[in-house]
Write a sequence for this structure.
């Protein structure tokens, strides 16, 4: 049963809505190579005087196992880097006035063709990877792929610039890229441990029409379902499950919620489960 719980924990903590963590082993080598190339060329993007956290950020990514997320500074760095890379390549820049941007802007509203940027839009990390890898024989966007250089001749610069953008965001207090949480407000990378947004508001289920307000709290949805069940079909069949916020939606005529309305939120938040009764 613990093995099954471990699988759920590994999947459930992947990260944010864009599920960027699985892309880490594909993108980090390209980023490290670009950094080393520009460092050897004494490019201003790698100047430690103006980008003192760049080398430590690269070191954090290189030493990361690419799996752990909760509390991992590398996860925070990678998530914001990948989101910034997409914006710099496909959306005209993470910040106004970026020095290097891609050749194609999927979010150029002036064209009157709509805006389709974002990792969940046209600028997927699938497309990003294949143009970085120069994959042959595969067209992730069918016949709609741009025939020129998406990086406009500045591939290494855009990669490193995107990491510098991520560092700027993480060291500030504005909203991070990829999820609605603030930056850490410090340049100390060790304080950038990834924490998922508490984006599941269980009180949004309030039966307001009945005039009852609940106090179930919030959870991080991450990559999780709101009902999870694990069954060990061995010689002795056992099972555990969790159903947040709770198994009962009953509210009495006096407006008193069932004690089981919200009693599984804590289990869900801690990746704990309750035993299922035997059949």
């Amino acid at each position: 049963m613990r093995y099954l719980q471990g699988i759920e924990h590994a999947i459930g903590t992947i990260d944010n809505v864009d599920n960027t963590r699985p892309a880490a082993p594909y993108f980090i080598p390209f980023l490290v190579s670009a950094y080393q190339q520009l460092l050897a060329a004494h490019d201003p993007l790698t100047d430690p005087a103006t980008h003192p956290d760049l080398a430590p950020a690269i070191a954090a990514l290189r030493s990361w196992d690419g799996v752990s997320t909760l509390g991992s500074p590398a996860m925070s760095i990678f998530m914001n880097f990948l989101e910034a890379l997409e914006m710099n390549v496909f959306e005209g820049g993470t910040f106004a006035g970026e020095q290097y941007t891609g050749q194609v802007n999927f979010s150029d509203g002036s064209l009157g063709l709509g805006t389709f940027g974002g990792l969940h839009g046209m600028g997927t990390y699938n497309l990003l990877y294949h143009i970085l890898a120069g994959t042959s024989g595969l067209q992730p966007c069918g016949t709609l792929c741009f025939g020129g250089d998406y990086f406009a001749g500045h591939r290494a610069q855009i990669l490193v610039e995107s990491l510098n953008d991520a560092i700027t965001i993480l060291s500030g207090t504005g909203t991070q890229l990829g999820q609605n949480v603030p930056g850490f407000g410090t340049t100390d990378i060790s304080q950038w441990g990834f924490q998922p947004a508490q984006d599941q508001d269980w009180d949004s289920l309030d039966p307001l029409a009945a005039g009852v307000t609940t106090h179930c709290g919030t959870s991080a949805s991450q990559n999780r379902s709101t009902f999870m069940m694990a069954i060990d079909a061995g010689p002795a069949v056992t099972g555990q499950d969790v159903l947040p916020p709770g198994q009962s939606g009953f509210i009495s005529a006096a407006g008193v919620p069932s004690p089981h309305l919200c009693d599984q939120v804590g289990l869900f938040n801690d990746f704990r489960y309750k035993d299922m009764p035997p059949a």
User: Anything to note?
Assistant: The longest helix spans residues 73-90.
